[in-house]
Amino acid sequence: MSQALSSTAFQTYATLLKTRSGLVIGPDKLYLLETRLAPILKCEKLRDLAALADRLRAPNAEPLIRQVVEAMTTNESFFFRDDKPFQHFRAQALPRMLALRPAGTPLRVWSAASSSGQEAYSIAMIISECRASIGDRRIEIIGTDLARDQVQRARDGVYTQFEVQRGLPVQMLMRHFRKEENGWRISEAIRGMVQYREWNLLGDLRPLGQFDVVFCRNVLIYFDQPTKAKVLDAVAQQMAADWLLYLGGAETVLGITSRFAPLPAERGVYGVVGGKFTTQTQRSQSVA
Predict the structure, then answer these.
(1) Which of 39, 107, 119, 268 has the maximal Cβ count within 10 Å?
(2) Which of 87, 72, 111 is closest to 217 using CA atoms?
C-alpha cells in the first residue's frame, strides 16, 4: 500500500528527477518511487520516502542524489529490440552511408541511453557480419547512459540466459558469445567495437563529437514536450549534415522539432531536411 507523502516531499523527487534525468513523474507514480527506492531506504536505514527527501535536500547530498536518479531510470533493453530499425540499418542505412562518405572517412554511430549495452552490441554484431562489404573502413560505436552501474554492465558484456533469449538469434548467440558460470559473455571482438561512456542526455553533448547515425530509442517517451525538444535539438547539433536518426516506435519528432524529417514508409526513422539520405530516398521512391 502506498504511504502518504507530503506535497513538499513529493516535489523534491519530481524536481530532482526532472532536472537531472528529464523524467517526469506525477502523484500517480508514488508506487514507482516506493518500489525503486526501497533498496536505498534499507541501505541508508531510513524509515520512509519523506526521510529520504529530507536527506536529498541536505548539504553534501550529491552521492545520494545520484543513487536516487539512477534507481528511478528505466533500464529496459534487449538485443535487436523491435528488429525493424536494425534491419533498416543493415539493409539501407549502412550501405548508403558507405556510399556517401569518402573512402577514408570513419563512420560514427551513437547508441544514446544505451542502458546495459544490448542495443550498441546489436549494432556491432551487424557491422561485424557486414565486414566483407565494409572493408577496412573504421566504424566507431559509442554507447552512453547516465547510470554508472548500467555502463559498467555494458562494458562487462555478461548477460543472463533470459537476456540472451530476448531478441537475439541463436546463430548470433553461438557465434558471438561464450557460456560462463554466471551467464553469457559477448566476445572480446564485439566488445572492442563499442566504447561506453557515462553521459546524461540533458548535459553538454559536444564533447561526444559528430555522428552519422544515432539510435535514441524509447527514452523520449519519459520526457515532457519541452525536454523532448531540448534533447532532439541538442542531438541534431551532434549529427553530420546527412545524418540518420532512429527513435522508438511510440516516439516522433512531429510537432516537437523541425530539424528532422521522417523517411517515407519508414516508422521511427528520420533524416535531415534536404540532406542526401532523405533526398535520395525520396527520389528513388518517386522513380519507382
Answers:
(1) 119
(2) 111
Domain of residue 63, residue span: 7-72
The total number of structural domains in the chain stands at: 2
Q: Quote the CA–CA distance of 172 and 83 in Å, as a whole number.
A: 14
Could you tell me if 177 and 187 are in contact, meaning their C-beta atoms sit under 8 angstroms apart?
yes
**Whether 26 contacts 6, CB under 8 Å:** no
What residues contact residue 91 under an 8 Å CB cut-off, 6+ apart?
none
Query: What span, in angstroms and rounded, lies between the C-alpha atoms of 153 and 193?
Result: 16
pLDDT recorded at residue 272: 66
- Same domain as 152, residue 16: no
Residue at 41: amino acid letter:
L
Radius of gyration of the chain (CA): 21
Could you tell me the pTM of the whole model? Answer: 0.83
| Cβ–Cβ < 8 Å for 127, 135 | no
Mean pLDDT of all residues belonging to the chain = 87
Residue 270 bridge partners (DSSP):
245, 262
What the block records as the C-alpha cell of 82 is 523491435
How far apart are the C-alpha atoms of 233 and 258, rounded to whole Å?
Answer: 9
